[in-house]
Every structure is written in C-alpha cells, then in structure tokens.
Amino acid sequence: MKQFSLEMLTILALVGVFLANSAESAKVFSSGVVDLYFEESPDGYGFELRRDNVVKMTGIFGKGVDFTNTSPNFNVTIMSVDDGFRVDWRSSDPNFQTTDCLNLQSETLHWYGGPEIYEQKWPIEKLQLSGDDAYVARKDDNFAVPERYWLNSLGAFVFISERSPLFVDQNTEENPDRVCFISKNEGPYINRTGLFSQAYLMAFDEPVSAHRSAVAQFLGEPEELPNVNMITEPIWTTWAKYKKYIDDTIVSEFAYDVLDHGFKGQIEIDEQWETCFGSREFIPDKFGNIKNVVEDLQEQGFRVTLWAAPFINPDCTELILEGEEKGYFVQNTIGNMTTVWWESNDARQIDFTNPEASEWYSQKLRRILQQVGVDGFKFDAGETDYVAQPGVYPHVDQELIPNILTKSYIKTVSEFSNLAEVRSAFRTQNYSMFLRMIDKDSVWGLDDGLQSLVTTLLQLNMIGYSFVLPDMIGGNAYRAQPDLELVIRWTQATVFMPSMQFSFLPWDFEDDEQLKGTEIIRSMVELHTKYAPNIIAAMEEKLINRTPTNPPIWWIVPFDETALGISDEFLLGEDILVAPVMEQGATSRDVYLPEGSWVDGNDPAVKYEGPIWLDYNAPLDVLPYFIKE
Ligand SMILES: *[C@@H]1O[C@H](CO)[C@@H](O)[C@H](O)[C@H]1NC(C)=O
Ligand SMILES: *[C@@H]1O[C@H](CO)[C@@H](O)[C@H](O)[C@H]1NC(C)=O
Ligand SMILES: *[C@@H]1O[C@H](CO)[C@@H](O)[C@H](O)[C@H]1NC(C)=O
Ligand SMILES: *[C@@H]1O[C@H](CO)[C@@H](O)[C@H](O)[C@H]1NC(C)=O
Predict the structure, then answer these.
(1) Is the pLDDT of residue 10 over 70?
(2) Residues with a CB atom less than 6 Å from ligand 2
(3) 300: part of which helix (H) or strand (E)?
(4) Which of 133, 208, 376, 608 is the most buried (most CB within 10 A)?
C-alpha cells in the first residue's frame, strides 16, 4: 500500500514532473493495475481512472479550488488501495469547500446507485439533483435512502464516506452531464471544526465484480433473511383503503373479507390506533375489543402487525413533558423542538442517537406486544428533516450528523425485526429487515406511479438493499383512485418481488369484469407463492454471493449495451426475467431477452434464443416472464 500525502502545491509540482517525463499524459499515481492520471484544466484537475490502461471514469478534481495559493489551507491525501484509490480532503478551515465531479458521459455510459427519489429515473445518469439540498435522508422528494454510491457500466465506482458533509449537484445548468460531489459545512452539517471529505475511486473489469466488491468493502451485507412468512403470503394493510379511519371492527371485517375470498397472510393495522400518536395505547372507544380481535385473527392463521412512527404528538401531554425534561427529543441550534409531520405541526421527534431515548421508545413497543399479542410493527418515517433544522445531536460523533438519526432509528427498531418493515435507511444494509419503498401513488408513470415501482426496485437493490418491500398494490390513492386495470398490472409487477402487499381488495372494484379481476389477481398471488422458494433462494444468494435479489438484467450480461440501459425489466436472482406491462391500455409490450435460452413462463413449450427483442402479447391476465435454461 502506497500513501501519497501531499500538499496540493506538491501535486502541482508532481504533475509537472510527470508531464515532463511522460510522452502520453500526466500519470500521477499507480495502484497495481489501476492508475490515476491528472491533467491541469481551467477549473481544477482533470482526472482519468484507468484499469489495465482502459479509461473507466473521468472527471474534475478540486473544481474551483485555488491551487496557485502559495500557502494552501488544505491537504489532499491520495492513498492507493486494492483496485483503486482513496482520496481525502482535509482543511482546518471549516469554511473550506471542495467539489469533485464525474463526467457522466451519458452518450456512452450508464450509472447505477444514487438516492431513492420521487421520480425514480433509471439508469441514474437521467436524474437531476440540486446541489442546494444536503444529500441526507429527507422526507422531501421521497429521499429516504441516500447512499453515496455511483457505479458505472464500465465497472468503476465512487463511494463517499458518511463523514463527508455532502451535497450532490447532477445534470444542472452549472453541471450538465456531470455529477458533482460538493463537501461543505452548511445546512444540517453542524459542529464541525474543519472540513473532512473522503472518497474511494475504484475500477474493475465490469460492473458485476465492481458491485460485489462494493458490497463487501463499503455497502455492507446482512447475515440472515428476514422472516420468510412475509415472502410466502401477502400483507394486507388497512392504510390505502381506510386511511386513518379504523377501529377493531373494521380490522376484523377487513381480515374476514380477505379470508372469505380464499386469501391469507399478514394483517397490518395502519395508522391511527393510538390515544395520541406515540402513546402506544389503543383508543378505548375504537379498539376496546382489540385483544380478542388479534387473538381471533391469529387463530384464523393471520399474523397481525401494528404501525408505529418515531414521533410524539402534542396531545400526549405527559409524554411530551417527560421527554422534554429528560432530553429525549431532537432540537435545533436555538432549542426549537417543533417536528412537522403529516399528523401534526407541533410534534416531537425521538432522538435515537440518545440510547436512553431509544430505550424509552422501545419499552412502549414491548409493552404493547405483550399486552395485545400483536406479532410485529411497520416502522414509518425516520428521515432527518422532520425536525426543526439544523438538528443538534449531542450524543454522537458530530461528523456523522444528521444521517446518524436515521441509522440509529433503524438500529433501535431492529430489536423488533421479526415481521418488521422500515422505509428509511442509511448505511443499514447489514440489517435483516424489509425496506419498504416510500408511498407510491395510484398513477401509471415514473412520477411515483407503477413504472417507478420497477426502477425503485433496481435502485434499492443496486445500493445494497435486497429485502425490498414494494409499496401497496395500486398505490396509496393520494392524487387519484386506482382502477382495476392499474391494480391488476401492479399485482403482476410485484409477483417476482420479495413480498406482495395489498390494501385495496381486488373485489372492491365495482366493474363488469369484477369477478375476472379477482381471479386474475388470485392467479398472480398463486404464482408468487409457487415461486416463493425461488425468491427465498435469490435472497439467500444475496447473503452468499452478494447477488442482488432483484438485479437489473445486465447483471447476467455486463457487456451487453442494450441490457445496460433497460429500466422496465428486472431479474429475480440470475435466471428469471420479468417484464411487467406498465402502460395503461396496453395489451403487449417490447421485451428484451439477453443472451441465453429463455423459456416462456406463460407457455413452457415456447423457447427463445437471446439476444432478441420480442413484441410480446400480454392481455390483462398475462404477466410476461421468462426462465433461463
Ligand atoms: C497538511 O499536512 C501537513 C503534514 O501533515 C501539515 O504539516 C499541514 O499543517 C497540513 N496543512 C493544512 C492546511 O492542514
Ligand atoms: C453543537 O452545536 C450546538 C448548537 O450550536 C451546541 O449547543 C452544542 O454544544 C454542539 N455540540 C457539540 C458536541 O459540539
Ligand atoms: C420552530 O421550527 C418550526 C419548524 O420545525 C418552525 O415552523 C417554527 O417557526 C420554529 N420556531 C421558532 C421560534 O423558530
Ligand atoms: C450493522 O453495522 C453497524 C456498523 O456500521 C453495527 O453497529 C450494527 O450492529 C450492525 N448490525 C447488524 C444487524 O449486524
């Protein structure tokens, strides 16, 4: 391992030396087969990362930094590591900023990773990200899982430390066809004495080995599967259908409706069951009989779970007093504790970075588990921007602010990981919990509708989260009500994902086709059950070989230019390819099958030799899927 610890002036000198001594270019650093070349440019240093002399990634290093200053107030350290380099920026001046950019080269390259976001475009060179917003777990823009990982189709990636005070500017007017990683101590990044920023630049032969290495070295991985009952049987949640207007009779009727139509699974009581949000006590008038209902549903073969959020609402007066007195809530730099969420404008957010506050939160959940005998929880929210900004977190390493809130929340609730789901995450790929996609809406498009279900699946898998819970089938009916066609297509899209979650019941749709609709959906649930062993095996592959459970199709053909750009197909493991119909009114779709022999899932007598494009006939009752021989 070589370490190049230099003041930037020395780098300048070195660049000069290499320029003078090298005919081709300004080769500066070498790390085995991977080399980093620098070249002076008007706005920083241009760089190239090469493996075996093939250019894998290019960009600008130190954009806007004054390298001519004779007494520089910063240091850059470049360290060679296996397959790449680690670059550290350090300055004792807290106002120092750095900007390092990658050229997306979207004409010839594709990129994977990046944040979960409302309009989940894929591959991610299509995303636009504003450098005005801190790159942290935010409720805004569905930005609930902001991993700092950009992987390209040539097998190079950048991974940025959780300690960097990061802002990301991509495809803006200032940075077209570029992603710029800006480190500056602003916004939620408080209490830092200087600037520290660290990135790894790594290069491999192709993106599969690159990603496996990223999982092992940087992203992290779980050791076991979540509860497989969440895979084999659907989840039925009250939310989209009833919203918060629920009681124990409704829960029971909802479950019996499911049962009477021949289905089973997990009943989820979502969302308003508490006397005040955060009390963890059932509203007596509405849920007086809940213990019996839960017991009865369990006897009928259901599992029953409860919704929980990390907030305490103002009408929980005693809890508010206790929490404020003991310092259990997050406050900002002027002592403001006001937390705004969808059920209050003046709530409090539990400070999970404080171990005592976490314990206070968990105790009440343990109590309700014991009192009522429910089986688990759905954990909502957890992003860092519900609290008054900037949040202060006195109990932790200040360089980890604010994403440490999200991380600590996940760690706290992992005690209840059996049957649990969370929806925000940061560097928590090693937990064996389902990660739910943020609420989807009842529309078809990439604007948080059905099409974004597939792209979000790909995105979460490619930042290391494989135990993905798609959101409610048919969406949440926020902007629009779903119709039967949307619900059927949505059901089909989730068949080969780890879990199926309903809220609207198929037979709720008053339609001439009503009966047929229910039967189509039943056949899809049966298909999911039939393939549950394959889903479980694919989730186990994640543990064994670091293969994402639902990878993009290029995973099996990493040199296939067409496959590298596909955003509306996905794999289950390495041998089932799924191409759901996601366009309103469509009865066929184009399907790309990469190299290999593919058996038609709908007709095993039919076989295709890839690579091939099919115009595949898919009326409402058909989900196109193919099995690799
Ligand atoms: C850079 O590093 C050198 C050697 O560790 C140190 O003497 C110097 O003070 C550092 N400069 C800055 C601006 O941090
Ligand atoms: C962080 O900043 C806040 C507000 O400026 C201050 O009250 C607190 O003491 C600081 N905490 C640490 C650990 O530096
Ligand atoms: C406290 O924060 C909330 C938002 O979280 C804001 O609406 C309110 O104006 C703030 N109050 C003060 C006194 O700054
Ligand atoms: C996940 O990794 C973190 C360290 O980043 C550790 O604190 C935590 O205990 C791990 N959790 C599990 C379930 O392995």
Answers:
(1) no
(2) 190-191, 333, 392, 394, 398
(3) none
(4) 376
Mode of pairing for the β-strands spanning 344-349 and 339-341: antiparallel
d(CA 485, CA 482): 8
Q: Could you say which ligand is closest to the alpha carbon of residue 222?
A: 4
Token duo for residue 606: 């039919």
Which of residues 203, 233, 264 is at a domain's end?
203
CA gap 101, 90 in Å, rounded: 18
336 CB near ligand 3 (under 6 Å): yes
Confidence of residue 27 (pLDDT cuts 50, 70, 90): low
User: Strand 266-269 to strand 303-308: parallel, antiparallel, or no bridges (unpaired)?
Assistant: parallel
Supply the pLDDT for residue 69: 73
Distance (Å) from CA 392 to ligand 2 centroid: 7
Q: What is the pLDDT of residues 223-255, one digit of tens each?
A: 999 999 999 999 999 998 999 999 999 999 999
Full domain range(s) for residue 571: 555-628
Give the pLDDT score at 5: 40
- Give the residue, by CA position, lying nearest to ligand 3 atom 5: 388
By alpha-carbon position, which residue is closest to atom 2 of ligand 1?
A: 75
Tell me the average pLDDT across 350-360.
Answer: 98
- Decide: 388 in ligand 3 pocket, CB within 6 A: yes
> Nearest bound ligand to CA 430?
4
pLDDT of residue 97: 94
CA 139 to centroid of ligand 4, rounded, Å = 24
Which domain CATH number covers 568? 2.60.40.1180
Check: CB of residue 255 under 8 Å from CB of residue 487: no
Asked if residue 46 belongs to a domain, the reply is yes
What count of other Cβ atoms lies within 10 Å of the Cβ of residue 154? Answer: 25
Q: Residue 155: which of 443, 559, 591 has the closest Cα?
A: 559
Q: Is the shortest distance between the CB of 25 and ligand 3 below 6 Å?
A: no
Of 467, 349, 342, nearest to 408 by C-alpha is: 349
The identity of residue 592, as a single letter, is Y
Average pLDDT over residues 119-125: 98
pLDDT value at residue 509: 84
Domain finish residue from 173, 203, 233:
203
Pocket probe for ligand 3: among 139, 140, 334, 336, the residue whose CB has the most ligand atoms within 8 Å is 336
Residue 139 within any structural domain of the chain: yes
pTM for the complete prediction?
0.95
Is residue 570, in this structure, part of any structural domain at all? Answer: yes
Closest ligand 2 atom to Cα of 394: 13
Q: Which atom of ligand 4 is nearest to the CA of 432?
A: 13
Q: Domain count for the chain, please give it.
A: 2
